[in-house]
Task: inverse folding
C-alpha cells in the first residue's frame, strides 16, 4: 500500500468512526474493519519514495514496523473507548495519525516537527478540562507542544547554518541547547516532566496511552533521523551524554513519583516516563544492538501502556465480575511489563542497561532499583484499591445500572437531575479504582442534583448539561423513529428464529459491552503472552529493520 | 474594498517606531486589561502590526496572508467567547436564575490570578529584562529590531499564560508567543514553507483553544483548596 493510500485510509477511517460515535456497536465494527485494514496497510506499506509538493515522503523499515504496531494498539484503545459513555474523543485516536505518518516519512525536519506537533494538538481536541473554561492540564499541554516545537525548529535552523560557518561554534551550542530543551519537554525528561500529571487528569486514558506510548517515541525517531542527516553533531557536542543522563533521570523520576500516585492517569504517566528512560539510555550508546534494544523498549512500552489503559477503561465501563477480574489480570501483566519484571521482551530490553550500570556505577544502579521498587509499590497500591472496590461491586453497580436505565426517561428540561446524572457518568475517568468510586460519585451527584433552589455560592446545577448529551438525545429520537417505521420487518425476521436463539441473541445484544469487553481483554492477554515468547525474534526483526545507520558504531 | 496598493501605502506610513510602540501597547493591553473584547481587539491589532513588520522581509502579498490568518483566529476566539457566554445564560435560566445581573455576577470572574498592580509591575520588569537581554545577547543572524520584538512577544505570551486562569486568555498568550517566534524564525530563514506551516498551526491552535474554552467539563470536582 502506498503512503498516499495509507493516509487516505486513515482519514476515511477517522471520519467514519467520528460519524458513528453515537452508535457504539457500529463504531466497534468499523474500528475492527478499519483498524485491520490499517494494520495490513502498514505491514505492506511501500518503502518507495513519494514526491509531494517538493517534499519527499519515504518510510524506513523500522518506521513501517512501528506504524504496524501503533495502528494495532490504536485499534485496541479505540475498541476500549467504544465501551464508555463519553465517546466524543473516540475518533481523535485516529485523527492524530495522518500528521504523525507525515512526521515519520517526510525528509524535512521542519515539516516533521510541525506534523508531530499538529498530531499532538489533535489529541488535545479529545481532552476535557476539569473545570469549565479554565486553563488546566490540557491547556498546559498545548502550551508545551508549541514551546517545544519552537525550540526544535530553532535547533534545526542552527544545525543547518553551522556547516556554512564552521568557525562559529556558538551555533552548535545554541543547537544543543534548544534541542535539549525541546526534546526534554516533549519526552518529559526531568525536570521537564511536570506537565504529565495535570495533562493525565484531563485526558481520557486511551488518549493518554496513545500520546505517551505512541506519540512520544516519534520524537526519538526524529532524533535518530537528525543524527542520520547531520552525523557531525555527535562529534561536536555532548548530546549522547545528555541523552544518557536524561534517561537515568527519567527512570528515577518516574519510579519515585509513581510510588505515591493513586490516580490511574498519573500512574500511567509516571510509568511511561520510567520506561522511556531505559529507551533513552539504550539509544545513547548508538550501537546497532543498543538501538535495537531501544526500539524494543519503545514497542514494549507502547504496548504495556495501551494494555493498562485498555484494562482500566474496560473495567470502568463494564460492571461484570468476570470482566473486572480479567481486566485486573491484564493490568498486572502489562504493568509488570513496564517494570521489566515479566519474562520475555521487556526483561530482555532492560538487561543490558542494568548490567552496564552494575559495571560502571553501583550507586546509580541502587537508585534505579529503588525507582523500580517505587513503581512496583505504586502498581500494587492501585491494584489493591481495585480489588477492594471489586469486593463492594454488588450494591454500587446496581445503583449505577438503575441510573443508566432511568436516564432516557428523564426530560431534557429537568436540568438539575439530568445534569447530575450526566456529570456522574462524565466523571468516570477520574476514579482511583474502576468501579466503587464511580458508583459513589454517581450517588453523591444524584444527591447534590436534587436541591431545588439555586445556591448562592455555587454554579447552577443546570450549567453542567453536556451539549453532546443534547445532540445524542436527538439522534436517539431519530433512531427510535426509524425503528418504529421499519422495525416490523426486522421483527418478523427475528420471530422466525427458534426461541432459544432469540433469547441468546437478545442477551448478547443487551449485554454487548460484557462480551466485547471480555473479547478485547482476552485478545490483549493473548498478545501479552505472545510477546513473552521468543524475545530474540523481536530483537532480530528490529535489528534488521534498522538497517545500516551512518552514525551507529 | 482597499487594493493591495492602498494597503502598501498605509503600511508605508507606519515607521519602525510606530510598529514597536504599537506592539508594546498591544502586549500591555493583553496583560493589563481583563475585558475579553479589548483583549481580542489588542490581538487583532497585534497581527496587523506584525504584518507591517513582516512586509519588510517578505513580499506584501505573502505578509497579508499573516493578517488574514490572524483575523480568522480573532474571529474564532470571538465566536467561542460569545458562544460560551450564551451557554452560561441559557443554563442559568434553565436552572431557575432569572435576573440578568445575577447571572452575569455568577459567571463574570477575574481571568487573572493576580491583581492589576502586580501585573503592571510584572510588565515593567519584563520590559526592562527584554530590553537588556536583547541588547546584551544578540541572537545569531537576527537583526536587533526583530530579535527584540520577537523576544518581547514571546515573553509577554508566556507571562500571559502564567498569570491567567482562563482558557481563552491563555490561548491569546499562546498565539502571541507563536507570533513572536514566527518573527524571529522568518528573520533568520524567510522560508515560505515555514511561513505557511506557521499559519496553519496558528489556526489549529486557535481551534484547540476554542475547544478547551467551550467543552463541557470532564469532572465537576474542585481540587483541594480551590474556591472559584
Result:
Amino acid at each position: 500500500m502506498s503512503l498516499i493510500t495509507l493516509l487516505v485510509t486513515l482519514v476515511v477511517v477517522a471520519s467514519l468512526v467520528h460519524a458513528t460515535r453515537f452508535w457504539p456497536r457500529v463504531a466497534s465494527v468499523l474500528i475492527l474493519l478499519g483498524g485491520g485494514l490499517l494494520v495490513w496497510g502498514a505491514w505492506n506499506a511501500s518503502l518507495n519514495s513519494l514526491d509531494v509538493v517538493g517534499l519527499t515522503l519515504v518510510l524506513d523499515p523500522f518506521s513501517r514496523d512501528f506504524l504496524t504496531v501503533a495502528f494495532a494498539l490504536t485499534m485496541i484503545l479505540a475498541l476500549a473507548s467504544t465501551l464508555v459513555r463519553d465517546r466524543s474523543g473516540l475518533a481523535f485516536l485516529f485523527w492524530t495519525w495522518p500528521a504523525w505518518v507525515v512526521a515519520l516519512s517526510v525528509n524535512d525536519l521542519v515539516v516533521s516537527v510541525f506534523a508531530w506537533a499538529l498530531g499532538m494538538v489533535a489529541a488535545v481536541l479529545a481532552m476535557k478540562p476539569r473545570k469549565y473554561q479554565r486553563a488546566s492540564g490540557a491547556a498546559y499541554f498545548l502550551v508545551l507542544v508549541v514551546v517545544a516545537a519552537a525550540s526544535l525548529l530553532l535547533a534545526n535552523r542552527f544545525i543547518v547554518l553551522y556547516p556554512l560557518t564552521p568557525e562559529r561554534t556558538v551555533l552548535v551550542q545554541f543547537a544543543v541547547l534548544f534541542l535539549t530543551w525541546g526534546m526534554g519537554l516533549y519526552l518529559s525528561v526531568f525536570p521537564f516532566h511536570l506537565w504529565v500529571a495535570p495533562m493525565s487528569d484531563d485526558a481520557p486514558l486511551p488518549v493518554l496511552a496513545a500520546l505517551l506510548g505512541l506519540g512520544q517515541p516519534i520524537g526519538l525517531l526524529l532524533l535518530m533521523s537528525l543524527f542520520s542527516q547531520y552525523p557531525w553533531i555527535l562529534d561536536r557536542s555532548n548530546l549522547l551524554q545528555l541523552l544518557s543522563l536524561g534517561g537515568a533521570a527519567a527512570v528515577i523520576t518516574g519510579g519515585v513519583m509513581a510510588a505515591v500516585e493513586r490516580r490511574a492517569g498519573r500512574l500511567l504517566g509516571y510509568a511511561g516516563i520510567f520506561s522511556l528512560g531505559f529507551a533513552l539510555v539504550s539509544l545513547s550508546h548508538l550501537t546497532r544492538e543498543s538501538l535495537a534494544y531501544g526500539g524494543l523498549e519503545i514497542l514494549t512500552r507502547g504496548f504495556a501502556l495501551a494494555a493498562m489503559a485498555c484494562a482500566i477503561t474496560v473495567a470502568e465501563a463494564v460492571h461484570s465480575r468476570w470482566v473486572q477480574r480479567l481486566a485486573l489480570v491484564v493490568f498486572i501483566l502489562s504493568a509488570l511489563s513496564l517494570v521489566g519484571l515479566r519474562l520475555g521482551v521487556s526483561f530482555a530490553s532492560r538487561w543490558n542497561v542494568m548490567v552496564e550500570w552494575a559495571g560502571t556505577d553501583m550507586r546509580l544502579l541502587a537508585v534505579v532499583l529503588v525507582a523500580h521498587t517505587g513503581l512496583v509499590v505504586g502498581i500494587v497500591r492501585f491494584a489493591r484499591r481495585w480489588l477492594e472496590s471489586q469486593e463492594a461491586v454488588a450494591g454500587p453497580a446496581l445503583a449505577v445500572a438503575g441510573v443508566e436505565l432511568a436516564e432516557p426517561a428523564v426530560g431534557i428540561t429537568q436540568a438539575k437531575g439530568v445534569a447530575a446524572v450526566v456529570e456522574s457518568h462524565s466523571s468516570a475517568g477520574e476514579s482511583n479504582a474502576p468501579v466503587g468510586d464511580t458508583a459513589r460519585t454517581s450517588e453523591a451527584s444524584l444527591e447534590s442534583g436534587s436541591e431545588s433552589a439555586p445556591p448562592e455560592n455555587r454554579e447552577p446545577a443546570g450549567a453542567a448539561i453536556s451539549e453532546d448529551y443534547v445532540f445524542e438525545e436527538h439522534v436517539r429520537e431519530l433512531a427510535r423513529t426509524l425503528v418504529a417505521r421499519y422495525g416490523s420487518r426486522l421483527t418478523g425476521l427475528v420471530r422466525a428464529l427458534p426461541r432459544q436463539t432469540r433469547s441468546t441473541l437478545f442477551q448478547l445484544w443487551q449485554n454487548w459491552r460484557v462480551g466485547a469487553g471480555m473479547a478485547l481483554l482476552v485478545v490483549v492477554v493473548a498478545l501479552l503472552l505472545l510477546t513473552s515468547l521468543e524475545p530474540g525474534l523481536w530483537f532480530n526483526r528490529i535489528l534488521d529493520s534498522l538497517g545500516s545507520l551512518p552514525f551507529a558504531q | 474594498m482597499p487594493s493591495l496598493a492602498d494597503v502598501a501605502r498605509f503600511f508605508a506610513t507606519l515607521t519602525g517606531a510606530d510598529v514597536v510602540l504599537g506592539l508594546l501597547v498591544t502586549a500591555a493591553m493583553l496583560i493589563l486589561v481583563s475585558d475579553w473584547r479589548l483583549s481580542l481587539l489588542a490581538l487583532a491589532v497585534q497581527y496587523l502590526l506584525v504584518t507591517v513588520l513582516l512586509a519588510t522581509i517578505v513580499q506584501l502579498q505573502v505578509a497579508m496572508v499573516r493578517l488574514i490568518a490572524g483575523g480568522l483566529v480573532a474571529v474564532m476566539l470571538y465566536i467561542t467567547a460569545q458562544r460560551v457566554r450564551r451557554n452560561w445564560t441559557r443554563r442559568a435560566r434553565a436552572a431557575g436564575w432569572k435576573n440578568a445581573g445575577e447571572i452575569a455576577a455568577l459567571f463574570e470572574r477575574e481571568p487573572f490570578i493576580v491583581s492589576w498592580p502586580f501585573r503592571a509591575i510584572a510588565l515593567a520588569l519584563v520590559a526592562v529584562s527584554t530590553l537588556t537581554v536583547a541588547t546584551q545577547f544578540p541572537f545569531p543572524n537576527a537583526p536587533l529590531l526583530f530579535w527584540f520584538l520577537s523576544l518581547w512577544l514571546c515573553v509577554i505570551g508566556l507571562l500571559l499564560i502564567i498569570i491567567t486562569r482562563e482558557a481563552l486568555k491563555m490561548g491569546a498568550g499562546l498565539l502571541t508567543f507563536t507570533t513572536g517566534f514566527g518573527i524571529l524564525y522568518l528573520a533568520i530563514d524567510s522560508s515560505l514553507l515555514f511561513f505557511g506551516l506557521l499559519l496553519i498551526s496558528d489556526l489549529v491552535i486557535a481551534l484547540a483553544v476554542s475547544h478547551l474554552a467551550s467543552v463541557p467539563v470532564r469532572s465537576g470536582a474542585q481540587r483541594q483548596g480551590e474556591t472559584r
About this structure: The longest helix of chain B spans residues 60-94.
